[in-house]
Design brief:
Strand content: 35-45%
Radius of gyration: 15 Å
Structural class: alpha/beta
Largest sheet: 4 strands, mixed
Number of strands: 8
Distance between the termini: 27 Å
Order of helices and strands: EHEEEHEHEEE
Number of helices: 3
Helix content: 10-25%
Length: 136
């Protein structure tokens, strides 16, 4: 089999803030920005990886969830415990220095983890946890 990752989904509750963060702060390119029913799905990704994307979606538009589940998702997003993505860089310290100069919610400075990874953690405007790992 030849299977690759095409898209992953992260929730967003403010499309303009999400767009600004992923495009302007992280430097991702915008691949699609689709509106429907007053909601927006924004697809972004690193320019060097045209086949891999993150879709920033409105979680309240998910079919089949109840109002109670929507409230729970909103609460989890506010705590930063709903969505997570792992990104990677060749220069973690340099990347972290650049992030510090921008309006980014820093969760953890670059740290050598006991499981062999060096990473840092930030949150996007929706509260999603973003861990950035150092490539070996």
């Amino acid at each position: 089999m030849d299977i690759t990752i095409h898209s992953s989904f992260l929730p967003q509750n403010d499309p303009d803030a999400a767009l600004a963060f992923y495009r302007d702060t992280l430097g991702f390119e915008v691949r699609n920005d689709v509106g429907y029913g007053g909601k927006r799905w924004i697809t972004v990704g690193p320019a060097a990886q045209p086949g891999t994307s993150i879709v920033l979606y409105p979680p309240e538009a998910s079919p089949g969830i109840t109002d109670d589940e929507r409230r729970t998702i909103a609460e989890m997003m506010a705590k930063g415990s709903f969505g997570i993505v792992l990104l990677a860089t060749k220069d973690l310290d340099g990347t972290f220095e650049q992030l510090q100069t921008r309006d980014v919610d820093i969760v953890q400075e670059p740290t050598d983890q006991p499981y062999g990874i060096r990473d840092c953690a930030i949150r996007d405007p929706a509260g999603n946890m973003i861990r950035i790992q150092q490539l070996r």
